[in-house]
Amino acid sequence: MVLPITNVQLFQFLKEKMGEKEAEALVAFVELKIQEGNEQNLKVLATKDDIANVRQEIANLRTELKTDIANSKAEMIKWMFIFWMGSVGVLSGVMITLFSLYMKH
Is 4 helix (H, G, I), strand (E, B) or coil? Predict the structure, then answer.
């Protein structure tokens, strides 16, 4: 298990191995990279407000979808009625024509 190390401890260790200026530069570089990484993470991190906004958008989309489905069902029922009435009309016309031809003979 690796124990957490502080900047001072890292500096002291590197100073013994590399020299004071090099150790100071390396520690400063590591701190800068960590800070840049943290700033980048903060830009990407979703906040509670972001999540609430996404939930609201999803709720709005669900409402729109339900409305669209209901409208589609009503439109489908209307066209089915028109189709069946047209079919009944044509079938009635054919039956009347056949019945009248049958009665003439």
Answer: coil
**Could you give the CA distance from residue 69 to residue 75 in angstroms, rounded to a whole number?**
10
**CA 46 → CA 26, 57, 61, 76, distances in Å?**
32, 15, 21, 42
How many C-beta neighbours within 10 Å does residue 18 have? Answer: 13
User: What's the half-sphere exposure (Cβ side, CA atoms, 13 Å) at 62?
Assistant: 6
pLDDT (tens digit, 9 = 90+) per residue, 37-87? 888 887 777 777 888 889 999 999 999 999 999 999 999 999 999 999 999
Q: Is the pLDDT of residue 29 over 80?
A: yes
How big is the chain, counted in residues?
Answer: 105
- Ordered DSSP codes for 34-98: HHHHHHHHHHHPPPHHHHHHHHHHHHHHHHHHHHHHHHHHHHHHHHHHHHHHHHHHHHHHHHHHH
What SS3 class is residue 105? Answer: coil
